[in-house]
Amino acid sequence: MGRREEPSWAKGTVGLIAARERGDIARKFQSRLTVTRSMIDRLGLEKELVGHMGCVNCLEWSRDGSILASASDDLHVILWDPFRHTQRYSISTGHTGNIFSVKFLSSDVIATCAADGSVRGRSVSSGSNVLECRCHCGRVKRLAVAPDTPHILWSAGEDGLVLQHDLRAPHHCNSDTNNNVLVNLINHMGRYGEAKCISVNPRRPHQLAVGANDFYVRLYDTRMIKLAKLQDIQLVGPQSRMMWERQNMRCSRAGHGDPDDNIPRSAVQYYAPGHLSKDPNEHPFPKKSTTYVTFSNDGTEILVNLGSEQVYLYDINSGRKPVLVESYIIQHNHGRRQHADKLPAGANGTSAGGPLGGPGAGANGTVEPQPQLPEKVRLLKEKANELVNNGNFMAAVEFYNDALVECPDCAILYSNRAAALMRRGWAGDTYAAVQDCYTAIKLDPNHVKSHFRLAKGLMDLKRAREAHECLLYFKDKFPRHSASHAVFLLQKDINVALENMDTTHEEGTIQGPPPSSDNPDECTGISPLEKTLRTTACDYSKRFLGHCNTTTDIKEANFLGPQAEYIAAGSDDGSLFIWCRKSGNIIKCLRGDESIVNCVQLHPSMFLLATSGIETVVRLWSPKAEEGAEDRRSVADVGAAAAANQQRMRSDPFEAMLLNISYAGGGDRELHSPACRAT
Questions:
Q1: Which sign, positive or negative, has the C-alpha torsion 662, 666, 670, 671?
Q2: pLDDT tens sequence across 62-90
Q3: Can you tell me the distance from the alpha carbon of 529 to that of 263, in angstroms, rounded to the nearest whole number?
Q4: How many angstroms from the chain centroid is the CA of residue 15?
Q5: For 327-339+350-508, which CATH class?
């Protein structure tokens, strides 16, 4: 089951009247009016909170929204009154490294984690410590806490460990009695596995999402996992010794799985963009790393900010598998090969109907007339077609997105958007175009262009064998078009690619064996469980493009509003991007930092947005009065900013360094790297 759609009558006045009769009118109004499109259009800077002396790496609202906590490279946590714009407390945490995460365990207790490898909890009023854990031997990047179990805390560290802390029991580091290792990624990913981010499902607290230094998101059912001890006793010492321990002691089982099979196969599900999970070895640069994961308020979706890539949305109830070649194409071609000798002369093997139902195409490939589109959708489609003809593919995709929101069952809109995506060429666009082609074919099995674009898209993805299967199916289904020049050229490219693949395979057979994973110095392999889970990873349901995420590994992306109708994320160009969830289009872009925006957190009950980044200030954003004055922090040319960010993410390291220096301020920007950037 996916997200439950409300009936049309429940979305307007009738729905609100019915809600009043049920006694939940306040909840309905709050859900509908917390974040609206008109509010986003009027979003502007309310106040800059000044108090930190370093980069502000994390923000967290208290559960009732009365306090905003911020933590920084200056090793302090500041608790703000967000309505009076004043400091309530400035807390020296005792950390010796940059703070990366802060969480409220209760109205009086906060927890922090930092680059010094420690997790700390303390009472705000008394200043007493409730937790001090140094079991990690690497930077601790994120904390997670369930709303209804504040005594349980999870931490994710770059030593590959996800630890579970129970504040009801006393904790002693280096103790044989500690069974607090929930997940050891090194045992499955190899010696270089790192946990980067973590989030707990607010509706199902037993579900824990973990992001690592790869493009997979791991969803664990903690009820089925047996807590384990640390494999080796922690050595207390400086950072250099911590890293020595990680590389030489904690990696004794790197890539060989857990010693006691702590994590059963049924306890975890992987999620990854299909174009990456299908070719995990084809993307060495830029390096992918999950910088943030979070759940929707109803607990049915996971939002992921993927480094050097886009923002992705996964449906955890009805996750779909990646697509390259649908089974009906394989079955058709297999049957064609088996029965080719039995067919009478002149027969082409086609059937009267399409493979997925619907009206059939004749032997000459003719297609039945398409149903007439509503006037609004027709105008959007014509405008998008015009933009494609003029070479403005980004704007064309946005118009097709808007049209599909109004008419989600129109095959030609999916097919046309696929063509625009393939010509735009941003990261993941070709794979998204293949998805659109499949959707168009399922809606209209006889849409000629969709079948041909499918084969072309697979060829652009360097999937020559799959492209060959699709083109073979296309020729059988539409013999009238099989002799066209475009088909001839595509078939020629496919044949050349297949020949090169065969040649490469033959040359590879005479090469030496790969390095042995038995050598500890070369132990970069993955466990059998990891291999299985990666092959069964579920694909994304939506993606959001325009921001840039290459420089820091703490960049967030969050839902806006109880209904999760909007998405927000920061960017390396200092911008704050807001997308419409339904269409995927950028609807607002604000200048949130002179360098980089990392953190975006919405107030739990009103439209008050807090952001932070490389600068030492926290910014609060709220809807402004409709005075007609231009907001100086609003980015006028959103399309140009998005296109520049996509180019920036695909540039080589030297070009990226130059862009980091020149972006948003030119010579006025400082040339040194901030301390909170990824190493």
A1: positive
A2: 999 999 999 999 999 999 999 999 999 99
A3: 9
A4: 33
A5: mainly alpha
